Amino acid sequence: MCGCEFQSVETVDLFTTTSDRTKEFAYEIISFHEEGLKDTDLLITLDTAVRYQTMDGFGAALTGSTAYNLMRMTPENRSAFLYETFSPDRMGFSYVRISIGCSDFSLSEYTCCDKKGIEHFSLTAEETMYVIPVLKEILRINPSLKVMGSPWTCPTWMKISDLKTKLSFRSWTGGHLSPLYYGDYATYFVKWIQAFEKEGIPIYAITPQNEPLNRGNSASLYMGWREQLAFIKTALGPKLQTAGLKTKIYAFDHNYDYDRMEDQQDYPLHLYADTEASSYIAGAAYHHYSGDKSELNRIHTAYPHKELMFTEASIGAWNDGQNFRMRLLEDMREIGLGTVNNYCKGVIVWNLMLDSRQGPKREGGCQNCYGAVDIDTTDYKTITRNSHYFVIAHLASVVKPGAVRIGIEGKLPEGVTGSAFLNPNGSYAFVVMNESSTPCTFFMGESERLIQCHLPGRSIVSYRWNDKP
Questions:
Q1: Alpha carbon distance 216, 346 (integer Å)
Q2: Model pTM?
Q3: For residue range 299-323, what is the model confidence (pLDDT) as tens digits?
Q4: Per-residue CA distances from 374 to 85, 99, 144, 324 (Å)
Q5: Are 192 and 100 in contact, with CB atoms under 8 Å apart?
């Protein structure tokens, strides 16, 4: 596997991964096609006049488990893996998601304020020994890295059983945030952002709650749309603003079908309809564990000025997650190109790295997940790269933060899906997948400067090239 700096304006860089693993992010340099093209049915042109969303980046979650596994590696091996993954000249991952407090892939259940009273806020050993050191190492490799934070639960002393009886609820799993503590919890977010910034780690975005409709995760908090609207409007938004923080707020952060809850349909649209609450919200974040990605397009159509982020997808035993032949193309269709072509500004998959025992993991959380990569516990060196790693790499390596998705004219061959981009430096990117077992060939570009695109059967290919001088 290789990623290299751009070649001259006379050549095209491309990367190929096939579902049979005969090619894993294989790097090639090709020349532009010099012959004229008679059959225009084979021609695809890029239309820079048609512009869609501006891209923020692509990446994976740096969970406590991921950071722990990375810190078990030797410094040399960890540095090599992180450079491969995050260097803009290699895979180019540019976005990470971390938990605010614990997640179901942490070393324990905790928040940053488990003793009652917001004055007791402090970062814990999981942050200071694992997450922060790894983030600092990544930032040395890619100083433009974006970081998103999401909580799985508020401190338990802020919880109540329900909004009617408001009984105390001292459990990591489930419960509601008491309205009496909206102010304190907003301060918790401010203190958390400031604590990371003090460590030299800017927080680009947050979500108020991971999977707000999921009561059953090992650490969780139910936050229906009315609760989230009130929390953002009366506390979180104003507190961030008063503190002078520019951190973006993304609402929702859960499944396309709102977990099939009738009263929670259109979750982010309810928040946008409130002018004051909406003024604090950059957009909405989604996961793909249930429902269909077409929901992204529907939400965009309703509020085209609001942003969309894809923030979580996982592989595991339930979806034959280590069956690379099946997963590679399906995951690119649903998670990679599928979300980008439905207006997502960024794509983040779940655990960057789990170990060969699918952990470390918490009771009550996912027991059979795989990471984007898995590391062997016998040596903490041998790495298996799974489908999600290549899905993100094929996008991040050629589509740079600030790129604009542009139009494609012409009909792609049957079974082929693609997306094109104009990067901030004027270079172009084209990411395409062929779900057919049959190789196919077509041409892309203008009549005097064509790229011959040859896609192996069941493959993903990423192209990048500079504009004419």
A1: 27
A2: 0.96
A3: 999 999 999 999 999 999 999 999 9
A4: 14, 20, 26, 13
A5: yes
